[in-house]
Design brief:
The protein contains 8 helices and 3 strands; from the N terminus they run αααααααββαβ. It has about 280 residues and is mainly α. Strands 1-2-3 form a 3-stranded mixed sheet, with helices on one face.
Length: about 280
């Protein structure tokens, strides 16, 4: 439950801070007639949606398994990670278009130190949210938190570009924010695609990676009674796996003895954080 409580707190912090930033940016954009700050305010609305999806995905995936969902609700995390990745991809294209346009078209900015203060405040808050959420994602092995953390980082970078634009336009330099903005847009697009792929792989029941599988197989082979391993199948259940496989043991062993070995293997494998459920079939050899 630690994972679900931590994700809930991260989503609450995200929604709270993003709502605060939206109100501040929206008010300042009206006062300064800054289109860039208004766009940043709209981006904060997207961040609220992202944090909301994190909260909903976490709430659903934290439900225990039931009669209709025998393997629990863990994949909900990846459905909402997929939605966040799509949001990142859409955002990247949107920002890319405006960045290309700003290279060639002079932006109508009204310089104000209030805009600078809001940008710096946004960057500091977003970096705090990124560091906190990224730390949780690594400790809890959560793709949902990882997606949300990257969203915070990209928001900080977008606002940094906005800050450069405000300062550079005050000195008569209009193209720099567009050029850097295009580069960051491609970076956001690439990472959005990566999160999409990770989520898609889990939802399509991609088997466990070689490193994790090798660790599991190595643990099984530690038992000298196991002569051979066959029909190894791994199915993702949220961030964990349900694994099923056949072990071949000496045919002279009693049924009780051979199944005792299987129970010991199951007990050891379930200590791994990657393992959700173990099903072992025993065959004589």
């Amino acid at each position: 439950m630690e994972k679900f409580q931590a994700t809930k707190l991260a989503s609450y912090l995200g929604m709270g801070f993003n709502l605060l930033l939206f109100i501040i940016k929206f008010a300042v954009s009206i006062l300064s007639s800054s289109q860039a700050m208004m766009a940043d305010a709209i981006n904060s609305l997207g961040d609220i949606l992202s944090s909301l999806m994190t909260f909903i995905g976490n709430k659903i995936s934290s439900k225990p398994r039931d009669q209709d969902h025998n393997l629990g609700h863990g994949k909900a995390e990846y459905i909402y990670s997929l939605l966040i990745s799509i949001l990142l991809i859409v955002l990247s294209f949107s920002f890319m278009g405006s960045s290309f346009q700003s290279i060639f078209i002079k932006k109508e900015y009204t310089f104000s130190y209030l805009l600078v203060v809001v940008c710096i405040l946004t960057i500091l808050i977003k970096l705090f949210l990124y560091l906190y959420t990224n730390h949780l994602s690594k400790n809890l092995n959560s793709l949902l938190l990882k997606a949300n953390a990257k969203d915070h980082l990209y928001d900080a970078m977008i606002t940094l570009i906005n800050l450069f634009a405000i300062i550079s336009i005050n000195f008569g330099i209009y193209a720099i924010d567009g050029i850097v903005g295009v580069g960051i847009s491609f970076w956001i697009l690439w990472n959005g695609i990566q999160i999409f792929k990770e989520s898609y792989d889990v939802l399509m029941d991609k088997t466990m990676e070689g490193e994790t599988k090798n660790k599991v197989v190595k643990m099984i082979k530690q038992y000298p009674e196991v002569k051979r391993i066959g029909q190894f199948i791994a199915t993702p259940v949220g961030y964990q796996y349900q694994i099923s496989f056949t072990i071949y043991v000496d045919g002279n062993l009693t049924t009780y003895a051979s199944h005792k070995i299987a129970n010991q293997i199951e007990h050891e494998l379930k200590k791994l954080p990657e393992i959700y459920l173990v099903v072992i079939h025993v065959n004589p050899i």
